[in-house]
Amino acid sequence: MPHVNGPFHRRLVPARPDLAAAHLRGRVAAERFAPGRPARVAPSLLDLTLDPNPTGERATQLLHGEVFVVYEERPDGLVWGQAQLDGYVGYVARDGLGPQRGAGRPVTAIWSQSYQRPSVQARVLGELPLLADVPVSGSTSGFARLRDGGHVPLPHLTPSAGDPVAQALRFVGAPYLWGGRSIRGIDCSGLVQIAHLACGVALPRDTDMQVELAGAPLPPDAALARGDLVFWRGHVALMIDGQTLIHANAHHMAVAVERLADVEERVLAARGGPVTARRRP
């Protein structure tokens, strides 16, 4: 856990002046402490905001099946808590959470569906992003049978090969979405995080966290290699090789592959400044 008074504490430490997680008793000051109730994300994607405003700015998205620990239930239909996967703290809609259950299997397709029956012609019960957690109880006719009654194509749960760069390249053309974490919409740090999570590597969620905590810093004169991260103020990209990168960006409003030199020139021309850091996860 980050330091309770560190730079990311609002987003990573479940503590407010009036309420904090029970496991933080003695480490933070709060009027009361709550033990927390684990729940699972029910829809395909669930927006999380930093403030208790149902129409507020999306800070991140939770994926279907993610565990979210609830510390406060509010009369306005929101709950406050912490995502177990990356520690993100904030508010989500209460009706977007279902009961806790055991861990399932991750979806490895870039996007999938849960069918009513083990048939491609069956009615779709729900849609599933990459890394959604689904509770598999068996298999039938090429489909994984879920404990909730749905059926997911077995190829969509087959472990995928490749490094984080290969995973990121699957998102080329996906629309840019601030706070997004799926092929339906993703931002720069979300792309970097999801690409690594697909390979079993945990990274922080936001760019300012990644520039401080993701891997080790590279000296300015070090040659860049596949998988390195390059940072600008408020932006991060993933190197494909020493000269080419992939990033979700607001210039194209999409995930795109470009030459590093071209991005550096464009960002400087837009007064976004030079590269601020380079790191190797």
Automatic annotation (TrEMBL):
Keyword Protease part of the UniProt annotation: yes
One of the GO biological process terms: proteolysis
Organism: Amaricoccus macauensis
PANTHER family the UniProt entry points to: NLP_P60 DOMAIN-CONTAINING PROTEIN-RELATED, PEPTIDOGLYCAN DL-ENDOPEPTIDASE CWLO
Domain NlpC/P60 span(s) in chain numbering: 158-281
Example GO molecular function: cysteine-type peptidase activity
Entry protein name: Cell wall-associated NlpC family hydrolase
UniProt key word Protease: yes
UniProt keyword terms in alphabetical order: Hydrolase, Protease, Thiol protease
Family: Belongs to the peptidase C40 family.
SUPFAM superfamilies according to UniProt: Cysteine proteinases (SSF54001)
Stored InterPro entries: NLP_P60_dom (IPR000064), Papain-like_cys_pep_sf (IPR038765), PG_Endopeptidase_C40 (IPR051794), SH3_16 (IPR041382)
Domain of life according to the entry: Bacteria
Pfam families on file: NLPC_P60, SH3_16
Xref: PROSITE patterns: NLPC_P60
